[in-house]
Amino acid sequence: MKTMRDQMTRQWNLRLLRASGDTSTSFALRTLAPKLEAAGVRALVGNRWSDGWGVDKIFNARTQQTPTIDLSCEDYGLVYRLTENHQNPLLRIQAESENLGEVPVFNLIGEIRGSQKPDEYVFLSAHFDSWDGSSGGVDNGTGTITMLEAMRILKQAYPNPKRTIIVGHWSGEEQGLVGSRAFAADHPEIVKGLQALFNQDNGTGRVVNVAASGLLDATSNLAGWLARVPREISRNITFGFAGSPAGGGSDNASFACYGAPAFSLGSLSWDYGKYTWHTNRDTFDKIVWDDLKNNVVLTAMLAYLASEDPTMIGRVNPDSARAAFAATRASGDTTGRAAGRGGFGGPRAWPQCDKAPRSTNPRLR
Length: 365
Ligand SMILES: [Zn+2]
Hints:
The protein has about 375 residues and is α/β, with parallel strands linked by helices. The chain is about 35% helix and about 15% strand. The chain has 2 domains: about 1-85, no CATH class; about 110-340, 3-Layer(aba) Sandwich (Aminopeptidase). α1 (about 1-20) crosses α2, α4 crosses α11 and α7 (about 220-230) packs across α11. The longest helix is centred in the middle third of the chain and has 21 residues, at about 135-155. Zinc ion (ZN) binds near residues 139, 140, 173, 201 and 250.
């Protein structure tokens, strides 16, 4: 059955490629949708099954004015079969939306000023936007809640930190780490003074993967902090030693590309890739509160330990890091999974710092 399903998908894709008259790319839908729109179709109806019962991936529409609709696997199958059998199914679609043009988006930043080393920073990080198939319960509601609550605890229990503690709730992450990239580019002094950044963005599970983002000299600091975390929290964590820098999956990459210590708190999956990530089922009810409490305490403790650490964490020049990283990759070290987005794998080379897109309208810049 699986072989047959794969075969049918391949045939369907081939058919799309032929229909679009473009055999040079495997992204036929990208090129096909605008062509169909230009030809005057009333709507585009599709389905992108996420491999789980009742779950669809929801990504961009490739049309500007024409509605693009996701039909559930079951309904899509019915419409498809009726069409294939020339029974002319008729769909009535009611869709309302308004294009507001370019609109400003904002990062939300909170800060507890450092009492002894205000120009060195511990950063809590999570993106505040979500994809629009559902309300974003775990991508990235849970990351946001974690950082918000960790900050509340720190403010109460540790109101005069040694170093400055900042929380960044980023906008435009889903469009390419826009908010965090712009922030890192606008604040070189914070990137330079970064003691540690902790980012969480792969679902509701308890943190199980931590690594030093490819920074060999940061490994001992990070291991030392984790060793001071109570066992009921740390026993879940696989420490990936140096690991590898984030390959661009989430906002820690916007800082790690400068060679700064920006770490991912990698969560247990809880079927994230299949059932919640960018699907129509990423909702509030998927949140696992016990795991979230675990993550909040871990994050607050790591922030405290990073702030108190008498040594500044080892950082690297991105150029030399690039060379060293290439060398470790060549020697076969592929233990860096934890540093990327949980389970998404690390990059093949030290990542470049991409520029955030900025508005051409000076009032929105
Ligand atoms: Zn996310």
